[in-house]
Amino acid sequence: MGIPDFWIKIIKEKTDEEWNLEEIWNELNNRRWSEKNIAYCESHDQALVGDKTIAFRLMDADMYEHMSVSDNNSSVARGIALHKIIKLLTFSCAGNSYMNFMGNEFGHPEWIDFPREGNDWSYHYARRQWSLSENSDLKYKNLLNFDTAMLKQCSRSLDSGFADLVHIHNSDHVLAYCRSGLYYFSTRILKSHTLIINLRLKKGGISLFLILILQISADTAGFLKHLKLIQSSTGMNHFFPFTCLQGLHLFSV
Fold first, then answer.
1. Same domain assignment for residues 47 and 96
2. Domain containing 25: what range?
3. What gap in Å lies between CA 113 and CA 121, rounded to an integer?
4. Contact 246, 87 (CB under 8 A)
5. Going by fewer Cβ within 10 Å, which terminus of the chain is more open, N or C?
6. pTM metric for this prediction
7. Where are the alpha helices (H) located in the chain, listed in sequence order?
8. What would the pLDDT profile of 145-163 be if each residue is shown by its tens digit?
């Protein structure tokens, strides 16, 4: 099963609470050591008429009515958060380069349909509405900002081999891993919870101890700051988002 098919299977068949992090980790890292890979979350087929993109599967018709930045629709908030976590998990784990199909970087709400006999040779859906991503009153811009930040801040991860697993706990829905000196944390936790993660850096045997307090929230605009690092052996403070993934450059290792 390819990675795009894997994500669709999870979205269609599992509730959020049923996501198996070990299964996800194994799938994203299931490739030959000796070969470089191109990773992508969804293929062009999913953007064509008759199928659905990840964004549309997650938010469906709510995308047409509730994408205003002032709208707190829970379905859209969930969809945006999961859209981000799927993209960055794939980007940071699954290959040595990353491919995106036009419009998916900001969650384009409509399919692509090229002129054909079945649509009376219409060009109406042979398009991408880039103006949606440029409108600061809509959440599409926030999705594009996340995608841009991901490419800018985390591209160094693509230069290395496989990611190193640091911590995985299915019951707590927490995953932590490192790739090319960037540490990534993912959480799908649905309750307030205190988790102790012991990060051991490879260089010089240095150990970093983190105590994280996870707080429930929803991502409606940009980057959330509701997963708080309250203590570390370095005295470092940092915030992580709920139902989102973020790269943290702790040390150059």
1. yes
2. 3-158
3. 10
4. no
5. N
6. 0.78
7. 3-13, 21-28, 44-47, 54-59, 62-65, 74-93, 131-134, 140-154
8. 888 888 888 888 888 889 8
* 17 in the same domain as 138: yes
Cβ count near 21 (within 10 Å):
19
Stretch 192-221: mean pLDDT, rounded? 46
| Residues 153, 113 within the same domain | yes
Q: Are residues 17 and 133 in the same domain?
A: yes
Same domain for 85 and 64: yes
Among 158, 175, 210, give the residue marking a domain's end: 158
Q: With bands split at pLDDT 50, 70 and 90, how would you rate the model's confidence at 179? A: confident
Q: Which residue has the tokens 């890979």?
A: 37
Note whether 125 and 212 are same-domain residues.
Answer: no
Q: pLDDT confidence of 22, banded at 50, 70, 90?
A: very high
Contact, 244 vs 84, CB < 8 A? yes
182-187 vs 245-249, strand pairing mode? antiparallel
C-alpha atoms less than 13 angstroms from C-alpha of 209 in its C-beta half-sphere? 3
Average pLDDT over residues 129-137: 93
User: Of 118-122, 180-184, 249-253, which has the strongest mean pLDDT?
Assistant: 118-122
The alpha-carbon radius of gyration of the chain (Å, integer) is: 19
Count of structural domains, the chain: 2
| Short-list 92, 88, 75, 51, CA closest to 139 | 75
172 and 154 part of one domain: no
The Cα–Cα gap between 183 and 196 comes to: 15
CA distances from 97 to 17, 35, 82, 117, 185 (A): 30, 12, 21, 37, 20
Confidence check: pLDDT of 57 > 70: yes
What pLDDT was estimated at residue 196?
53
Is residue 84 within 8 A of residue 146, CB to CB? The reply is yes
